[in-house]
Amino acid sequence: DAPPGRVAADVPVDERFMTLALEHAATGLGRTAPNPPVGCVIVQGSEVVGRGFHPKAGEPHAEVFALREAGEQARGATAYVTLEPCSHFGRTPPCADALIAAGITRVVVAALDPNPQVAGRGVQRLRDAGIVVDVGVLEAQAVRQQAGFRSVIARGRPWVVAKYAMTLDGKVAALGEGNGAVSGEAARERAMHWRNELDAIAIGSGTLSLDDPALTVRGVPSGRDPRPVVFDRRAASDPQARAWREGAVLVTAPDAQVGTLEAAGITVLRADTLPDALRGLGELGLSSVLLEGGPTLLSAFLEQRLVDEVRVFFAPKLLGAGLSPLTGPIRPMHEAQTLDDVTVEPLGPDVLVTGLLSDI
Ligand code: AOF
Ligand code: ZN
Predict the structure, then answer these.
(1) Is there an atom of ligand 1 within 6 Å of 146 CB?
(2) What is the mean pLDDT of residues 35-64?
(3) Is 175 in a helix, a strand, or coil?
(4) Partner residues linked to 132 by β-bridges
(5) EC number(s) in its UniProt entry (predicted)?
(6) Which of 47, 81, 140, 358 is most buried, most CB within 10 Å of its CB?
(7) Bridge partners (DSSP) listed for residue 107
(8) 338 CB burial (10 A radius; 0-12, 13-18, 19+)
(9) Does the CB atom of residue 38 touch ligand 1 within 6 A?
(10) Mind listing the pLDDT tens digit for each residue in 149-208?
(11) Percent of the chain with pLDDT strictly greater than 90
(12) How does pLDDT run across 210-237, given as a tens digit for each residue?
């Protein structure tokens, strides 16, 4: 990844600065929910004089930090913002007003804010004040970066990313004893970045008892751990498992006997169905979920069309007998769920394939 401040010289000017704004916004990924990650860059002439990102709900918005850095140099400058500047009093005052007061004369916006309290009013307010506003620069990237926020607003549930690593013969684990890692170091490092960038990490009770995964972020500078979410209908999981750390969520049946786990300060979410469970996670302020296994949970999500994005590592290994990533029913090829916007990337000896199952 190019560090903030470095972009290719041949991209048109607006895209170049919006790329920077998106990079700043990315610093907030995994930290801003239920708010979106947003970045802002202020440009005077061709010089960047201010930059900012939204660090956390309740703290100032991206524009405020960028305006603070720019100071007097904001007068007559252009602001690049990855989301339409807000027009409402929420936890913080309207950014549109702050941009107007600072003397900004042009605002370039990547994507409009779907929040019904804003939804075009931010742009209108800026235009009413005589500011030139251009909307839609790198919109697709911005929308993708804000997928969690947009998903909760549009569907009342978090954006769900399914992740696994499998051998070339389609096995995610060996059977019986001796279960080492499937993928290599570079793949694991990438997966750690995803954990850092998504709000929650979900597993099923089977994975909890088989692997007792830590579900933490290792080796990412300034990384923070996602909230663990364990799907366990019967609430029968080992209360000593590593997933039950501060902030953990138990998703269980309405009539399950929770006992010890509840006493341990874990958030208990009672839901009859997976869509209800996801709505509940959204209400807890979680905008995105990384689904890390195992086959039973992943299959249930897929069957109910609740997976929005898939990220799979293929490791150049052949295992023979082993565990499949999915346990779904046998069906004809024309019923396969097919990914859109597919990317393929070599990572050390492994290959990462990603794609979307939902529109954003
Ligand atoms: C912006 N810039 O950096 C962000 C925006 O409660 P508040 O005041 O934090 O407002 C939250 C809403 O503001 C959020 O739902 C979204 O509509 C917008 N987020 N807007 O101009 C920012 N994070
Ligand atoms: Zn704002």
Answers:
(1) no
(2) 97
(3) coil
(4) 106
(5) 3.5.4.26, 1.1.1.193
(6) 81
(7) 79, 133
(8) exposed
(9) yes
(10) 999 999 999 999 999 999 999 999 988 777 789 999 999 999 999 999 999 999 999 999
(11) 87
(12) 889 999 999 999 999 999 999 999 998 9
Report the candidate in 53, 58, 65 with the shortest Cα–Cα distance to residue 92: 58
Decide: 113 in ligand 1 pocket, CB within 6 A.
Answer: yes
**Bridge partners, 109 (sequence order):** 81, 135
Whose alpha carbon is nearest atom 20 of ligand 1? Answer: 86
Closest atom of ligand 1 to CA, residue 113: 17
Res 5: pLDDT: 52
Q: How far apart are CA 190 and CA 75, in angstroms?
A: 41
Pocket test for ligand 1, best of 61, 82, 99 (most atoms within 8 A of CB): 61
The Cα angle at residue 262 between residues 259 and 267, in degrees rounded to 5: 150
Segment 284-324, tens digit of pLDDT: 999 999 999 899 999 999 999 999 999 999 999 999 999 99
* Separation between Cα atoms, residue 256 and residue 234, nearest integer Å: 5
177 is written with which tokens? 């004893």
Q: Please, are residues 21 and 80 in contact by the beta-carbon 8 Å criterion?
A: yes
Q: Residue 343: how many CA atoms within 13 Å on its side-chain side?
A: 9
Ligand showing the shortest atom-to-Cα distance for residue 21: 1
- Which run of H or E residues covers position 123? helix 121-128
Contact between 127 and 133 under an 8 Å Cβ cutoff? The reply is yes
Closest Cα partner for 210 from 172, 267, 248?
A: 172
Which residue pairs from 22-26 have beta carbons closer than 8 angstroms and sit at least 24 positions apart in sequence?
22/82, 22/110, 22/138, 22/141, 22/142, 22/145, 24/51, 24/52, 24/53, 24/62, 25/53, 25/54, 25/62, 25/82, 25/142, 25/145, 26/53, 26/145, 26/197
Ion ligand 2: residue ranges with CB closer than 5 A: 61, 86, 95
Is 85's C-beta closer than 6 angstroms to any atom of ligand 1? yes
Encoding tokens for residue 23?
A: 């990079």
**The complex's ipTM?**
0.96
Query: Which ligand is nearest to the Cα of residue 114, counting in written order?
Result: 1
